Amino acid sequence: MSPTEMNQTQPQAPGTYWRSLGQLENSEEFQQILAREFPEGITEAPDEVSRRGFLGEVAASVALAGMASCRKPETKTLPFTKRPEGFKPGIAQHYATTLTRNGYGIGVLAKSNDGRPTKLDGNPDHPSCPGGGSDMRLQAELLQLYDPGRSREARNPHSAAHAHEADAHGGHGGHGAHDDHEVDVWQEFYDWLEGDDGADLLNKQGQGLHIVMPPSTSPTLLAAVGRMKAGSFPKAQFHTWTALNQDQALQGAQLAFGKPMAAHYDYGKADVIVSLDCDFLATEGDNIKSASQWGKRRAQAQDLNRLYMVESIFSTTGTAADHRFRTKSGDIAGVAFALAKQLGVGGGSDLQAALGAHDASAFVKNGKNWVEEIAKDLQAAGKKGLVVAGATQPPVVHAIAHAINAELGCVGETVTMTQVVDGIASDCAAQLRALTAALEAGTCEALIFLGANPVLDAPADLGFGKLLQEKKPKTTIHVGLYEDETAQLCDWHFPMAHDLEAWGDARAMDGTYSMQQPLVAPLFGGVSALEFLAFFNQDNAGDATWEDLPLGRDTTFGYELVKQHWQEQTGAVDFATNWWPKALHEGVVAGGALAAESAAVNGGAIAAAVGSWQKPTGMEVVLRGCPQ
């Protein structure tokens, strides 16, 4: 009986409920709707095919498709026939190595479990990490090593076009494609270097070749740059660029002493510390060492020091300060001038006259003039006082900080001045402007970026990204951990090896040499800046040749380059049997620390800078490096 017939014949019992007026009226239109909703035979498939039969045929087709696919891959697990010396499965091993930060080396002890680095701690024998200290950024290096967002394959215009074509046909292109037309980017780069374009650069002695790289204190890398300048590419131009540079600090030393100098502070000896926008406990300077010194002194309950913080943002150092004064970044120069005036800096000279216009009365908190209170504390501390300026402050603030420390007699006590470590530039911004000028003039023919991303972090007024698009050189190459904004505008891209995947060396802020050895082979076939430059310059070292690099990036080339450099530098007779193994074992090379130097403060130059300083007006935007 159909639903319609049921509705027609079923009597309406008293109290029966209906779903709609249509059901109550039982009109012809309602009967048609009811018939369409529940048609006869709806539960059976057409053409006399049952539901069970249909599912059986689908299951059979899936089974047959599985039989036609690739069989399960076979992997054979083989035990060690000859176990590496000192290796025991499941037992951690520790290696001394070096990580670089802002160009300087930080000594670390790396823990390795079954061939994979798993933990990093400071090397207690390295001056940057007294007592084995560490910080969050040091621990985060492991996260970067295993970051799934790292660049995984090389790319050039040919491979990019091939990948696009393969995607259009439903395939997989790129360097790792499994087809008959796989693009070997490294081999094509070798062919480019050996071809007409590479020969043209050689014939021009590198004229038109520009290389951008961050600051580096690596002796081996600097030696490779020197070989390029003295050999095949004497007209090539190298540009040092990083957004987190030391331009202001070094230019401030130039203003104060007549030459760039590096200041080293001992926070453990200081009784009173005044920080002018300097986050020395977390993000600036030799922060691991600084935090260790300051923390040990604070742990002495009978002899606490006092920390004053004048800053524009809330920092780690501001959190730990005894007194924190929130001040606009552009007003901190006025604070420095007023403090110097209260301390009598430049007495009887042009500097004192220039400081006379800056009064401390403008700085009041809770009814007290806090600049005067700080000045009293510093005067009482004398040579046990210390004033430091932040990296983002203008050079005149750094110069005033040096003048205050000299007035208090801190130099030689809480402050040590040395020359700047080789490889640290004091004019990163000027060097990037020089590259911008070359791009605008069209004289840049080949442009190489080694671990730099100026498209993202160059000053906005340069318009570097737009300029690179509009005035793009004939050849653009990028080597980096990520396929970042600069890489996306370059024709060639190569993955860069992480510090834990490459051989190298570096110098600490005090000049101490340290060795860098890999804990694991490059996970994504990356190369270090040292290996890339040596390959480009066609250098050979030991048993490794530059021609081997396209065949495999297994760190052998970098190892031979570093070892050969140090063998030539030391000239040790027992280099292979004693010097080299000892350097790798300890991670530190003795005898590299810079000697302290004395320098007189140039009050006249500082006075001119103070006199020309103008207080910023309008809205203030402060850009800082991410502590992560």
Question: Can you put this structure into words, describing what you see?
Answer:
The chain has a five-stranded parallel β-sheet with strand order 5-4-14-15-16. A four-stranded parallel β-sheet has the order 9-8-7-12. It has a three-stranded antiparallel β-sheet with strand order 1-2-3. It is globular. With 628 residues, the protein is α/β, with parallel strands linked by helices. α9 (219-230) links the parallel β4 and β5 (237-240). Helix content is 38%, strand content 15%.
Count of runs of 4 or more consecutive helical residues:
24
The neighbouring-strand order within the major sheet is 5-4-14-15-16
Mean pLDDT: 89
Morphology call: globular
DSSP strand count: 19
Structural class: alpha/beta
How much strand content do the residues show?
A: 5-15%
Radius of gyration: 34 Å
Poorly predicted sequence stretches spanning 5 or more consecutive residues: 1-9, 172-180
Biggest sheet features: 5 strands, parallel
Distance between the ends: 74 Å
Work out the helicity level: 25-40%
